[in-house]
Amino acid sequence: MLGVGLAGGMPGALVREGERVTLRTAESEDVPFVQRAGANPEIRYPLGTPLQNRDDYEDWADGDADRLLVCLEDDPRPGRPEDGDDFERIGAVSVEDADWRRPELGYWLVPEVHGEGYGGEAVALVVDYVFRTYDHPAVGAVAYDFNDASRGLLESLGFEQEGRVRRDRFIDGEYVDTVVYGLLREEWRDRE
User: Fold this and answer.
1) In the 8-state DSSP scheme, what is residue 23?
2) Is-above-0.70 flag for pTM?
3) Which end of the chain, N or C, is less packed with Cβ atoms under 10 Å?
4) Rounded distance, CA 23 to CA 122, Å?
5) Which tens digit of pLDDT belongs to each residue from 74-117?
6) How many domains does the chain have?
């Protein structure tokens, strides 16, 4: 195990399974992991999020959005039990606003696994989940102009830049631009 995810508690229900990562529902016992990771400046600044307390994160887990954990499963054998506890939390993905407009993705991974390709796999799994679950013609995401890794991830999955909101957010002492991305259902289907 990597030792980056908080041990203890059973993982949430399996939502999607990739080659190396799984997406599982975020449960109340996952709040300490999300809170600790969210306090890390390497995650918090690129997301543009303020420090939050435990109550804020409990609201996050109980909110209307689809909140999913990105996990590494230690047992690579097929047919492993869905409720096993051989897993490591390495990040989170969310689907916002899917019940009333174009769903918007959010995602982050703990810094210890950056550059390993887990983010691309996790976001691809959540895009597939969105198009299988919701009847929307597209999915969106945003990345700050300075976040080359996030922008590259989205573009590698076929997301197109749709716009820019100039000086949109105050992050780490300066105003930054937000880059808006979108991916049409048929573009995703054509990739497969």
Assistant:
1) E
2) yes
3) C
4) 7
5) 645 354 445 555 789 999 999 999 888 899 999 999 999 999 99
6) 1
